[in-house]
Amino acid sequence: MKNIKKAPFVQEMCRATANMYRLGWDERNGGNISYMLDEKEVGKYLNLNKVIRVIPTGFDASKLIGKIFIVTGTGKYFKNVETDPETNLGIVRIAKDGTSAELLWGYKDGGKFTSEFPAHMMSHIARLEVDSEHRVVMHSHPTYTIAMNTICSTDEKEFTHKLWQSNTECIVVFPDGVGVLPCMVCGTNEIGEATAEKMKTFRLVVWTNHGIYGTGRTMDEAFGLIETVEKTAQIYMLAHGKVVNVIPDEILKGLADLWGLTPLEGVLEV
Ligand code: 2HA
Ligand code: ZN
């Protein structure tokens, strides 16, 4: 068996959480990541027949039975993942009953997966239905994104338009736009279901007064989506009240045409 701490997927989790912490996006135990792994790849590092514990999930994830995920732990700090991945991360497999998860590695102190596990698993189900190569769900509390959401309407087309208008990268990086949920109680199946509903069409979903979800085929894609929103939200907040130039809709359409992209319908008026 190879050393699991050297596994590329563990290293990727360590690097992502460390970066996010240092960017100031994930204070204390804020934020969580789940990453669907390839069974054969995990099998090089772990005996897949050895289940450490079975952890109930409290919801039905039948569509993910047998799928393996590496997931940040509940109450754990992103800042600490890099130095102690085995305590702060866990590798779980959705069990045959669809409502529990088999721990294969990690959560060494008796812990379990993030409180946002329902939102993560339900989002994986939704994204896999539109993209079979989808792998990563990432949740974070980036400061400027939350600030911008605090002063903007929760209308997702309006919010998307404001981002697109503030930075030419945006329409190219997320032509599909940003979904926005109203303020809800987090850590519940209800917010999980609402998030997954948005994930049918969006790779990015803002949780009002809380943070953002990004998804992707790779860690870089999920991270890059959130990073682009956060950078642009920073521009928006720095310029707010002093704006002279916003990107006109004709230019946004020109960018979409240039890159062969279909922008979220109902945002541009050209
Ligand atoms: O786990 O980010 O949404 C901490 C959170 C909850
Ligand atoms: Zn959160």
Describe this structure in words.
The chain is built from eleven helices and nine strands. The protein has 270 residues and is of the alpha+beta class. It has two domains: 1-115, Class II aldolase/adducin N-terminal domain (L-fuculose-1-phosphate Aldolase); 117-260, 3-Layer(aba) Sandwich (L-fuculose-1-phosphate Aldolase), CATH 3.40.225.10. Strands 2-5-4-3-1-6-9-8-7 form a nine-stranded mixed sheet, with helices on both faces. Helix 5 packs parallel to helix 9 (189-199) and helix 6 packs across helix 10 (219-239). The longest helix is centred in the C-terminal third of the chain and has 21 residues, at 219-239. The protein is elongated and about 60 Å long. Bound molecules: Dihydroxyacetone and zinc ion (ZN). Zinc ion (ZN) is lined by residues 30, 139, 141, 186, 210-211. Zinc ion binds next to loops.
